[in-house]
Structures are given as C-alpha cells and as structure tokens.
Amino acid sequence: MQINLEEKNDIAVYRVTGDIDIESSPEVKKFFDKVAKEQRSKVLVNLKEVNYVDSSGLATLVEIFKNLRTYGGKLKLSNLSAKVNGLFEITKLDKLFDISEEEDDALSSF
Known about the structure:
Layout: E1 2-8, E2 11-17, H1 25-37, E3 42-49, H2 55-69, E4 74-78, H3 82-90, E5 98-100, H4 103-108
Parallel strand pairs: 2-3, 3-4, 4-5
Antiparallel strand pairs: 1-2
C-alpha cells in the first residue's frame, strides 16, 4: 500500500496504490486521520491503482468521509476500476461519495 500526495491548486490529491483490505485499512485510516487533523478542505482520492477493496476498506473510506465532513471538508473519489466501482454500486455507496471517472473531472467539480 502506498499513498502519494500531489497538490493541485488548493486541492490535495492522494493517489493510492495497492489493495484496500483488512491488512492495509488500518494504515489508510491512520494516514487520513492526519489529513483530517490538518483540516484539508478539498481532498481527492484517486483510486486508479487500486484493484480490490473489501468491506474493511469500504468502512475506512466511509470513516474518512465522515471525519472530513465534521469540519466542512469535501472528499471526492476518482478513477475507480470497474470492479471497485461495482462494489460501490452494490453497496449503494456510490450515492454517498462524489465519484468521477477521471481525476480532471473531479478536480473541476470542487
């Protein structure tokens, strides 16, 4: 699991590489807890290099969403693979998250 940050204007773009599962979820949560403490107002998580998300990964993403929302921060997701997007649709989390097919679309929608 690897998470890289790139600043684009006033938006923090995090690119995740690797699966978000029972083993990596605690690391992802810990990383984004720091992001919440910094109170970043605009956060984009690019999941292009994520091939698999399990239930603990979904729970972690929901927790990140809630943590950012407590201070008015916005979280958007982009570049979900067909498999990961299908999981969001099945669980109806596509209704909770603002998901864009491409990073540029997500950036322009903030």
